[in-house]
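Q: Sequence in, structure out?
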Amino acid sequence: MPLFKEEPIVARPHTMSMTGAGVSEAREKRGDIQGLRAIAVLSVVVYHASQRFAPGGFLGVDIFFVISGFLITDILLRELERGEMSIAGFYQRRIARLFPALFVVLVAVLAAGAALLSPADYKELAHTAFSTVFFVSNFDFYNLSGYFDGDAATKPLLHTWSLAVEEQFYILFPLLLAVIWALARKRLGLILALLGCVSLAASAWAAYRYPPAAFYLAPFRAFELLLGALTALSPPSARMPQLRRDALSCVGGILIVCSIAFYTLGTPFPGFAALAPCVGAALVLYAGTGGRSLGGRVLSLPMLTFFGAISYSLYLWHWPMLAFGRHYFLGPLTPPQKVLLLSGAILAATLSWKLIEQPLLKRRLSLRRTFALGGAALICTSALAGAVYLSDGAPSRFPPRALTLFASAGDYNRLRSECHNNEDLSIAYTDNCVFGAPGAAPVAAVWGDSAGTEPVVALGEAMAHRGQGVMEITSSACAPALDYQLPIRPACAAHNRDTLEHLIGDDRIRTVILATNFSRYPPSDWPRLFSGLTRSVEGLSAAGKAVVLIYPFPNLWIRPPTLLGIVASRGEDLRTLGVSRASYARDNQQPIAFLDALSRETGAIAFVPVEALCDRVFCPAYRPDLGVLYFNENHVSVTGARLAITRFPFGALPPPES
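A: Exactly. Output:
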């Protein structure tokens, strides 16, 4: 996240020419920019603590990108106008601003990970720490956005993706600016605007087609930094009427506030949706250049300028605090725990700002010494992260029983990479995998999202004894619901139409089992999801297929293998870990009611896994006689699926041939 602080910020006077004439020597720090930083970082912090209070708080990062583009461009233009631009000097400033606080946080995070993380999580942390050092962690987290990568809320360095995006942009931007300045100075604004439009168009396309790429990768975020650059390039006239200046700042503030209040995780982002908060930030910056605005005076309130001053350190500290808090408390954080952790983050950020950021900035080290110290910090931190990674996460920290529990994270369908559709794999109907008796033709099919991938293994084992086979037709985040899909799965609707058509025409398949992980889809989408599922069942039933509806499996908040291993290492009782039956019923009230009604109306047969996985009051994550029942936070393990299948309605299947 681009929260670094450059030299005291001063508006470039409106009289400044491209040759540098009229540059004022008087410099004053702009309180409105500090306040805008505060709004951005606080929106992110509140969002990470509770989305309920700031559902669009994630866009604070985008506001910072605009601020960063504005500040960097303002400084580089000053240097170009004076003929003093130095690429080495630019990176000296970046090192001085970013490295000290960042490397202190990285060392602290690696130390905390040694005490709180499983070997697999600690190894992943070391890998992401290494990539953070070289500002490429956004690629790591882009690649770690699948089902097997754990809950994002427990990854201590997830937030560093934005630092990586910003630094990747600044690898090329200063050089690009210098080249355009030398060759086409009068067209500088036009060229930057065209580049911004290209990035915006690509981002808008990717937000629907490849959302993780649009979120994490720099080309799809560049337009936000370029918008800030264009704002710095075109300062307003000092004669701008105060009323217009105030109005622009207020409109900008309204755009930001409304975006934070009304955007949600379901908003395709960034793309065109990012324009509202980014244009809002640009308007605030523009209105405060060369004069004070009404919005700027509000943003200059002492409390906001304080949080603006510590914004970079607060951004660095707040997320590891929350992530490690979830590991320490072994589950979702309570409001008092969040308050405690965020208070600690604010304290750590304040100390970091006063004791690390400010003293080192004031020393103004030479170019050679800055690069030497920065290189030393990079090498030492990389070596520490590398040692953890090469040790496979230091498993010797844990007793053998804990290591056995950690290893149960591998108890999933081992053919997922071959048999399960995802963003990178599309399997033709005729190539779908069949489980069961060797060589047996499928008489049934499991059609669903990833909720069906482990049950199909257990069902195949049971059907092997009957001499039968079952086909797997599963696809990540793609419920078997006609004409419904998430923005991140743009091929899902076509996949489902094709699947239904083939199932109806496949005389071998006489029973279809539908599997849906309802918690994977926003509750606001459930009416459309329910409608699509109903149409799928009706289509199958009309074709004479028997339909089995898999009711929701219990979902645990954190990966059970990790949770159980940590608890075992603490010598605590594993049987207490799980979710209450009441909590399960409350979380799944609407899907259960829908499935009950669908079963009554269509004659579909219910398969209720909780009847096997839970007793009357509790759904354990672990059973001493069986082992771990879930391989991650929202998928049953093969062991758990075998237990669940003991309640499967085998009467819904065609009888085995004699």
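Residues 1-28 have pLDDT under 50 and may be disordered.
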